[in-house]
Amino acid sequence: MREPRVVEKGPLALSDQDRNTYAGFLAERNTGLIRLLPRNNPKSVFAFRGERPAIRGDGAYYSFHYRTHEYGYGSDLEFSVTQVFKGTPDRMTELPPHKSFSVGLAGADFGMLTNLGDVPLADLTLEDPRLAFMLAYETPRKESQARVEYQRLGKGIIIDGQTYNQRLPAQSDATYVLRSINYGVSDVLVGFHVVREESDGSLIIVWKLLKALLRHSWRGITKALTKQRNTDENLRFRFVHRNLFTYGRDIRRPAAEPAAATLRRLQG
Prior knowledge:
The protein has about 270 residues and is an alpha+beta fold. It is about 20% helix and about 30% strand. The chain has 6 helices and 11 strands.
């Protein structure tokens, strides 16, 4: 379900103060202001205790392409926390968790993040040299190549002193750039700034779409995806067939025809 660029009601709502502070920025196209809730172990002593939305992903994900927090709609960004302990096995003490952002959340989809530090998001443009690698990066056209890149970016790479990784620590007052590649769905370059961490552990984030790149898919998949999405807007699926990637799906009601059957029919 596509959300407004600034949610005003429910657990993901933004405060009046935040909406007023960024009113000028939000007047520009392809911008938004969101709240992300942490994905965590509910048994942790540091677990989020506030209200969560009744959607898949519990408010810890966001798709800049579909503009929704609901997981399964080409999610581009995840906010999660990892528990940390010290002590012996019979006497463990839980420490404040590690908080991180991740990209590349399903199937062979992948991407990269980089932290630019505390720089004004409004001043960030495609001419920034730290974006050159992300802009010039060519999307793999074979699944085997994508898997290799997933592993490479998972370990992190450094280009001209700038680190690019699929997972980075989440920091307040920091500006990030994300490139998220969801095969057959979207390929976006987005800048976002973490305004602050709230007392409940959620993050307030302002963002802008820097560029929507040419999405990549394999022969035959685009037509099938388009036909199924026009039939049922709640359907998000992925094919497994030869060189096609595996795409997840969220079905609120039965589709008129299974995805595999649709692919076979379209291929003749």
